[in-house]
Amino acid sequence: MIDAFSSNAVVFFFTFLTGACIGSFLNVCIARWPAGLSVVSPPSRCPNCERGIRARENVPILGWLTLRGRCAGCSLPISAQYPLVELLVALIWAAAVVAYGPTFTALRVAVLVTILLGVAVTDAKHYLIPDGFTVFGLIWVTATAFAALFFEGSSPFAGAYDALIGAFAGAGAIAVAGWLGEVALKREAMGFGDVTLMAVVGAALGPNRALLTIFIAAALGLVGFVLIILPFMKLAGRKRARGSDVAGPEPASEADEDALPRVPFGVFLAPAAIVSLLFGDAMIHWYMSRFLFT
């Protein structure tokens, strides 16, 4: 038993370490892809003073802690996003191995969830889903769906045939939803990045759970709009009103005329896809047995 515990601890440690390193690279993708920059060169550097990051300073999580969250060159703060993303990805990879063992399925889960995390963070910061995430994601999900044909055992992923159908179903459904939203709101309601993201999700989950993902994301988006965006809009409106009392009325800008805020839907699609991956089949079975076969 002690030997088994030691073996599991070693696997967990190296998986956690691997995840932290993947998280460090994910930070590079999040920072550079929205600006159209290469994630390979130049080497990591401070975005403020452009001082190169030394190897010992670039150790995931620990590097940020040893620097106390500040650049060793200019002493300006380094965003806490970097160690948080590294830690979260490390935990994601470790959790995948705990749940599925050191298997091909665990690798597939860890990589997909890492991609979805990168999408959510980038979309939240830049209102953009880079093609780097979705192109790699679609290739990865499709290739591993066919590779899984040679592995035994159950998997939360769609089979090879359902992966192909799901990619078209996911992309098509979100494109139609975006078109209907554009007709209703008289403005762009869905970016193309959301369409390509749902192609990835559909290839991973199959058509049924891809549609479930959109439904869950819409519900999460509604909750986020009511609890976060609306209060923020009201607060901003009160600040503008106080400013107008002091400085007099200002001419309306395009931002004022466009009353509805931009909502990064990828922020909601990403966690919805994870929920559908892990619990989607059970949720669909529960719904059908409760409401359709009574």
How are the elements arranged and paired?
Elements: H1 2-32, H2 62-66, H3 81-100, H4 104-126, H5 131-147, H6 160-185, H7 192-205, H8 207-247, H9 254-257, H10 266-292
Describe this structure in words.
The chain is mainly α and 294 residues long. The protein is 71% helix and 0% strand. It has 10 helices and no strands. α3 packs antiparallel against α4 and α7 runs antiparallel to α8. It starts with a helix and ends with a helix.
List keywords for this structure.
294 residues, mainly alpha, 10 helices, globular
Mean pLDDT: 85
Q: What is the C-alpha radius of gyration, as a whole number of Å?
A: 22 Å
SSE series: HHHHHHHHHH
Globular, elongated, flat, extended or rod-shaped: what is the shape?
Answer: globular
Level of helix content?
over 70%
Helix run count: 10
Structural class: mainly alpha
The residue ranges in which pLDDT falls below 50 over 5 or more consecutive positions are 246-258
Tally of strands: 0
Largest sheet: none
Distance between the termini: 49 Å
- Strand residue percentage: under 5%
What is the structure about, briefly put?
The chain is built from 10 helices and no strands. With about 290 residues, it is an all-alpha fold.
